[in-house]
Amino acid sequence: MLNTIGARVLERELPVGQAHQAFGADDRLADDRLRTALTALIAELLRTAGSTSHAGTTAA
Q: Is residue 29 a contact partner of residue 23, using CB atoms and an 8 Å limit?
């Protein structure tokens, strides 16, 4: 839907099954692989947001 209206969206997602049990007592994802995947996904999101933060602006 967002892609249809011109928004830039990531093509990846990170499903977390049994999310109510996926976090430890320290509120972190208990599974190292999920934590690594989430870190990579957030980094990709930040890169994408950074590359579009000046889109559509003009120099004065």
A: yes
